Structure formats: structure tokens, C-alpha cells
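I am hoping you can look over what I have pasted underneath with an eye to the fold:
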Amino acid sequence: MKKYIQKDDVQYWQTIFSLFLGSFVTFAIFYCTQPLIPIFSKEFDIMPATASLSVSFPTACMALFMLVMAWLSDAKGRKMIMTISLVGSTTLAVLSAFCTNFTLLLFIRALQGIMLAGFPGIAMAYINEEFHPSCVALVMGIYVSGTSIGGLLGRLIVSTLSDFFSWHIALAVLSVITLLSSLYFWFHLPTSQNSTPHKDSLPQILAGLQAKLRDSHLLPLYFMGFILLGSFVALYNYIGYPLMAAPYNLSQTIVGFIFLVYLCGTFSSTFMGKLAGNIGNAKVLCLGIIIMFAGVLITLAASLLVKITGVAIFTFGFFGSHAVASGWVGQCAKKGKAQASCLYLMFFYLGSSILGAAGGKFLTWLGWPGVVLLISAFLMLGLIISGALLLRETGYLVHAKQNNLSQHSL
């Protein structure tokens, strides 16, 4: 008999807060160097696409090692691997603050990506396994809101402190904050009750992966993950270039405060996660993609206020879409939830690495409109996929109602 965490349990909010802090740490570390990309370009005399590797490298490494970490979490337990992931990555964050050349920084960032591979997918599996099914959508939304807070504070702290002091001091301060958050997670997250450690053989693991990559319900969601984070990172990697150039000429600190629009994501992930539970995942996913598409097109406006509004709208759509898609993966995977979640996030972070780097090429080629062109093309593909999912979900609902009616008449 499974013992779920429910809303009236003492551990309910303690567990949610611990997971919230874990997602905060993950995104703060991943994207803390994003506002520093223009600084790296200037300080190390490198192209924007090369400077963006400080974001793309860790995400690519995490994507490649997520399945290994999922296997380790099955063998050693969810909490142990998540804790090692957070504490190890924050320790490396301290070392990154002392880097004096870009190559060494990239090496440490890559190691951080490998360590952080042990958190996101396993946390999603933990939520689906430990919380009662009636509150999974809400908890997943709150968890995803932690990623928005982490991305916001990570960028804001680093951009502001680097403007007043240096990027080295900025990364050092952030590393202390994330280390303390990781220690809280370690001491307060309950040990898994519904996941018994076990060790699958390599043939079993490969068979499970093959089945999940062929699953017609999961595969479209994997591609959605690629499109969602790839588009998001491409926008945030390079939005600083037009804003710090003429006619705006904004300082690094002001550009950093623009990341306050992340608060839109904090709200949208919880709101749209709850909405998906009421009207269906596919409808809300379509809505989220449309919102992202509208937002990125608005950033082409000349007015600074309108441009920032476009970024906010885009951010709202992204976090809502990610909350729905990631939660949907756990619902579709009847078994091997950690493996399914890690596959989703592997595509998710590969999108970040590939489209995040490609955005630099489009920026060099066509300026900011080039980045918008790249994002728009992939969002159109996302809209096609989400539309197909909507048609399928609607068909299933109609079929289910017909079956219920026929059974009732009998």
C-alpha cells in the first residue's frame, strides 16, 4: 500500500519548499552566466556564440548524463542522488568564481552540468511517486516556479554585483546562497517512501529507453521540451546585446533587472499547471505556445517598454508550457517515471544547448530579428505538435464519453 504525501500532511509544505529550493539552485547555477555573456565577449575577446558556451556547455553535459543519474537514483535512492547533485554543483560554483581564463571556466561549468544531471528528472519522478495524484499538477507547478525564481535571482544577483564589483565576486556570492539552499534540501526533504532502490541490468535499461522513445504519447512531449527551452535560452542569451547597444545603451545592472519578468513565470507555472488539471493538458500547452509566439514577435518593437513587455509575455508562456509538458510526461509514463522524466529533460536541455548556441549565429547574421526568426520557426513547429496532441486528446475524451454512455445505457 503506497503512502502518499497529501495536502493535510505535516510534511506537505516542507517537502514542496525543499523541492522548490532544489529547482532554485539548479536554475540559478545553470543561468548565472547568461547575463555575463556580453562581458565574456569583451573580456576574453570572443564571439557571442562562443561566450554563450558558458550556458550551453553545462546544459549539454547535463542532458548527456541524465540517464546515468536516473539509473543511479533507481539503485541508490532518489534523495541521495539529488543531494549529491546539489551540494556537488554548488561546491564547483565556488571554484568557478576564481577562474581567470575562459577555457577553465568552461571546464568547471561542464562538471557542474554533469553534477546537476542528478536533480531535475529525479525531482520530477519524486513528485509523481510521493505526492497524491490529486495534487501532482499543483506541486509540479510550484516546483517549476522554483526554476523561475532561481533563474531570476541568479541573473539579477550576478548582473548587479558584476556591474558594481566584478563577475568573480558575483559568482562567489551566488555560490554561497546556493550552497546554503542545498544544505536545507539535504536536511529537510523526506526520504522516498514509494520508490524502492533497485538495480536494472543494461539490457533492461536499454529496453526501457527504447520503449519510451517509441511511445507515441511521450515522444511528442520530448520534442516539445527541446523547443521550449531552446527558444527560451536563445531569447535570454542574446536579449542583452540589443539592450546594451544604441539607442538604449542600458547598463549591465538595468539589463539584469529586466529579468524581474521571471516573476511572470513564477505565477504562470502554478496557474497553468492548475488550469491543465481543469481543462486538459493539450489545450493549455497550445495556449502556452501561442503566448510565447506573440511575446517573441513583440520584442521586435522599437519601444523599450514594448520590447520588455514582449519578453514578459514570452516568459509567461514558457514557464506555463513547461509545467504542463513536464507534468504530462509523468502522467503518461505508467512505469519507469524517472527514466521518462530524464528523457524529457535530456531533450529539454539539448534544446537549450543547440538553439542557445545557434542563436548567436543568427544574431551575428541578422541581428536581433535573426534571433526572433530562429525562435519563431521552432515555435511554429511546437504549435503543430501541440495541435496534434490536442486533436488526439479531444478524440480520446469523445471516445471515453461514448464508452461511458454505452455502459450506462446497458
Notes: The longest helix spans residues 368-409.
